Every structure is written in C-alpha cells, then in structure tokens.
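Protocol step 4 of 5: obtain the predicted structure for the target chain.
Materials: sequence only (see below). No template structures provided, no constraints applied. The aim of this step is simply to have a reference model before the mutagenesis design in step 5. Sequence pasted as it appears in the construct record:
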Amino acid sequence: MKMKVIVLLIFCISFGFLLSAKQKQKLPVIIEECLIHKVIYDHGKKLDSILLQKILFNAQAKPVTETEYSDDGFNIEYKKEYTYKNHELISVTIRDKDGVSEKTLYTYTSSGLLSKTHYYDNDGLRIVKLYSYEGAKLKTTTDYEYVGKKAKLVSKEIRIYNKANKISKEAVINNSGDTTFKGVYFYDIPGIIAYKAYGSDKRELESYESFFINDSIITNKIFYLGDSSNLKEVYLYDSLQRLIKKELRDKNEKILKTEEYSYTSVGRLRKVIKINQNEDRKEIVEYEKNGRILSEESWQGENVEVKLYYQYSSLK
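Step 4 output (structure tokens):
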C-alpha cells in the first residue's frame, strides 16, 4: 500500500510539472521593457518627473503589454495587451481603470494578409472591417457597423494600381452610394507621389517642379489644399529621394507650419522637427540608430514644456 502511495505521489508531482511546463510555454517570453518618463516644465524650469508608460516586448521586438499611468505615476489609467500566433497579431485588448474594455481580433489569409478585423466593446461586437486583395495588393476595405446583431454598411474604400504596382486611383463610397473621397495619383520619381487630384470639394495639387543641385535632382512638390483656403503644402526631397522638408503656406506664401527631417549615415530617420509658426509651438522627436523613439519634446516659444524620455532595458 505504501508503495502505491509513493508511486501515485510521484505521478502527481510529475503531472504537475508537465502542466506547469505547458502553461509556461503559453506565456510570451519577455526580453525587453521600455519605460517612458514624462518631465514637466514651467517657463523652462523642471517641475516634476513621472512614469508615464511601461511597454514590454517579446523576442520578436513586438509589444506584449502597454501600461499607462496617471499623473501620480502609480495608478494605472489603462492596460493594453497584445497576443500573437506564428508572429502574427491576433488580438489587442484594452482595459481602463473604470472597467471599460475594448478588444480587436485580427484574421489573416493563408498567405498572411490581413483579411478581417472585429472590434468589440462592453456592449459586444461593434465594427467589422473586411479586406480584399488583388494578388498581394489591397484592393478594397469595407466597413460594417453592428447594432445588436444587425450589420450596417458604413463605407467602402476602393484602390486601383498602375503597372508599377503603385496606387493610381482611390475612392471612398458611403452607404448611400455617394463618393465622399476621390484621389488620382501620378509619380515622377518611382514611388514618390508627385500629383494628387481630389473631387470638386477638395482640390489638391496644381504643379510640381524639379531642379538640380550639384548634379542631383531635388524635387519640390506643391500641393494645393481646398478651393477656399488657398493653402498649399510644399515638399522638398534630397538626392536620395528622402523627404527633408515639408511646409504649409497660405495664399500669400506665408509659412504656417514646417516639418524638417534628418537622417543617419545609413539612412534611418534621426530627428523630426515640427514648427507651428502661427502658435509659436515646436515639437522635436529623436530616434535611436535602430529606429526606435529616443525622446520627444514640446516647446512654447523659447521654453520647453514637456519632455518624454524612452528608456529601453534588456530583461534577458
């Protein structure tokens, strides 16, 4: 009898270890975390520093959880959880401090293309998006809204491609069959849009020009936004066809907003500076060599107001 008890005990312990091992296999392997600290300033003087967000990454450098904290740096505002299967994102769940829950489920084709998303809130299924393809090119996106178990068509987006597999035409049709958006695209340098034309309510782009600096082509594209505003966007590219400057101007050529882009020696984005001349505001985003965000700054005039620092740590 004693031998049977010992054998049974050994079996139970072994079975327990097996269950524990299986459970551990289901848990994602966390190898890195990112702590985002928010530093607040008043007229350039540092007032406070709090933990704003914590992100945990798996072995594929994909986020597993994101936790955002309140202004005290301790209480959780919301938590976002990601699940994957065969390295594909299959669900995102968000829960806030008040118990409100949102969940999005992702479905893929056999070739790995996104085919469907389901969005749920506390009341159940709310929105479904369907994606159809022509080969590997996204052809249509159809949105349905659910009220109870009844689905209502919201809109459908249609894309047409040219011989170079770039989008040449695009349109959005609402549930009444009316076209709410229409775009026609042409390209001068391969892959870079040089012309956009919209419907009667939105007119974008009249012309663009190219010129030479040190035998390198620099393309300056001008996009006119709207018939009434007479605003326009000017895009400037370097000799490697990378965007280096973007300006928003009014009809008198006054610059309202500016965006400047700089790159590392290997071509990765290094810094983005956004300036709103009307409001005398400036935003600066810096990136690490591997492309991850390193810091963000928000300025009012000559004074910095907020800085965000991204601190990455290995958990191996």
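Step 4 remarks: Confidence is low (pLDDT under 50) at residues 1-25, 197-217. The CA atoms of residues 119 and 135 lie 26 Å apart.
Proceed to step 5.
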